[in-house]
Every structure is written in structure tokens, then in C-alpha cells.
């Protein structure tokens, strides 16, 4: 894993990048940047491990996260918020950011709207190239994610993606960010030198 190369390549793709040694420093930074605004959070174990939802609420933000308040109203508020926060399933050293989603709310929040987007990720998500990042997204992050749910997917048995067709499938879309989407105010990768998330 080459952190410096990854940061350089993400910047060459147009992403803003900040780097922190631990999740506490990253959380403090995000709270300093996000004040008195609407915030949506896509499903993210990294965000949960950072305690970011609570800290952003305490800072006076209107925070919508369906992990805390389930329902379609919350999902709508998430994607319409002025700031959107989520993570990455994998990051290639060549700068691409990959995510897999079942419902699509997290992907929608990351790619559409005139807003600020922060993608928080531990350095454990970094992979040497695009192919290995795709493998990680499918066979590490997606498999671990499916184990959180009472579903019957074959990946839960042998820990690998089968591109299955079962009703409970949670991997219905793959998104690759090659660069920030047009008209967004800001897209920043907040990279943390810890193993975080899935």
C-alpha cells in the first residue's frame, strides 16, 4: 500500500484530499468544516466507528442518517442535504474510488447535487490497482456488509461474490468515481491511517 502515491493520484483526478493519523483527528477536522447545515450520511461503518453522527449533531447540524432513524423520509433527507458523508468500499492507488450498493441511496448522495461531499476511509481500503480494488469491493466489503443482514446470499457461506440473483441481493450497483462530479461544491477524500470500516 502506497499512501503517498494514492493521495497524489486522487489529487490528479481533481479530488481534494486530507490525511489524518487517526479517526479522532479526522472527526475533529470534519466537525470544524461542517457547521449549522443539513448533513446526510450514507451507510458507513467507518462513520459509525468515528462517532461522527453524534459529533455533528452536537455541533448544531441537522443530520439525517437512516441507521439512526430508519425510513424513506430519512433517506430523502440524506440525499437532499447540503453536505453528504459516506465511505468507500475500495480505493485504487491509481485514484479511483469504488462503491457497491443495494438500494442506491448512498451512490445517489455521492454523485448528484450542488453540495459538499466527504468520503471518509481508512488506509485499509487502499489497493494496488483498479482490479484489486474491484476485487476488494466485491469480495471483502460487500460480503462483510451482507453478513450484517438476515439474508440468504451465497457470499455468506464462502466469503466471495457470486453475482447472485437471489431476492436478498444487496449488491445491485457498482459505482466508480474517476473524478468529482460536475457542479458539486466540493468532493474531499478524508483518508485516515487506521483500519476502519469493512
Brief summary of the model shown:
The protein is an alpha/beta fold. It has eight helices and ten strands.
Characteristics of this structure?
198 residues, alpha/beta, 6-stranded parallel beta sheet, 4-stranded mixed beta sheet, 36% helix, 23% strand
Give the helices and strands as they follow along the chain: HEHEHHEHEEEHEEHHEE
What is the overall number of helices? 8
Mean pLDDT: 91
Got a strand count? 10
Strand content: 15-25%
Major β-sheet profile: 6 strands, parallel
Account of the 3D structure:
This protein is of the alpha/beta class. The chain contains 8 helices and 10 strands. 36% of the residues lie in helices and 23% in strands. Strands 1-10-7-4-2-3 form a 6-stranded parallel β-sheet, sandwiched between helices. A hairpin with a 4-residue loop joins strand 5 (90-92) and strand 6 (97-101). The longest helix has 17 residues, at 130-146. The mean pLDDT is 91.
SSE blueprint and pairings:
Blueprint: H1 3-12, E1 16-20, H2 23-33, E2 38-41, H3 45-50, H4 52-58, E3 62-65, H5 72-80, E4 83-86, E5 90-92, E6 97-101, H6 105-111, E7 116-122, E8 126-127, H7 130-146, H8 155-158, E9 173-177, E10 186-192
Parallel strand pairs: 1-10, 2-3, 2-4, 4-7, 5-8, 7-10
Antiparallel strand pairs: 5-6, 6-9
